Known about the structure:
single chain; alpha/beta
Amino acid sequence: xxxxxxxxxxxxxxxxxxxxxxxxxxxxxxxxxxxxxxxxxxxxxxxxxxxxxxxxxxxxxxxxxxxxxxxxxxxxxxxxxxxxxxxxxxxxxxxxxxxxxxxxxxxxxxxxxxxxxxxxxxxxxxxxxxxxxxxxxxxxxxxxxxxxxxxxxxxxxxxxxxxxxxxxxxxxxxxxxxxxxxxxxxxxxxxxxxxxxxxxxxxxxxxxxxxxxxxxxxxxxxxxxxxxxxxxxxxxxxxxxxxxxxxxxxxxxxxxxxxxxxxxxxxxxxxxxxxxxxxxxxxxxxxxxxx
Length: 291
């Protein structure tokens, strides 16, 4: 049985509850967070499973015995492993749901009482009041939010990074350039600890944000090199399927279906930057770019 966990690193008034969810491996759980030492904001109503929901509700209701009161449930973004219990928990606890406005069309039938915007400050009362700055960080998902407790330097970062595994940028709704820009933004915040949706707390998170950026740009260089090898100008170009084993030669074929999505996201970024050209589902380096 999974129990609530303090997040450590000297962070007060924050507790994590890892709940089993249908997430991507190697992760098996999604962390929910309770923020605030008096009034409490619950983040990530994640689990769709009945047994986990019972434990989650017991955790949430237990704050009353500590003299703490629940004010709302917030979601970082609309993906199923983050909102699998959203409507259920809101109804059971009688709490409003908060999310970014972009989440509304992606969560049909889930009532959102408050649409959080970038730069907004959520204030939670208590013996030591908590101020959470809302950060809209699209790239992984259009509605993605992070929450920064500036006083403590604690950043609830959803799926921007992970304590285990990596982050998928799906070109159907993600944006690689925006994701990298938002990682750079998070790296500049000076946070002491990042609290991801998957995996444990991350101390000195700026280094990890920078590593994520460097890793993605390194992969991008492999994409550019593969396009270079495939020819330019009048050449017919190459397909995603041909690029995949070249760009992701370091990954086992079992990982290629997800890698293919990331590859396409990289190619779309290069296309928007004028560094790659797509025609009839074939890709080539843009002529004269020297990429």
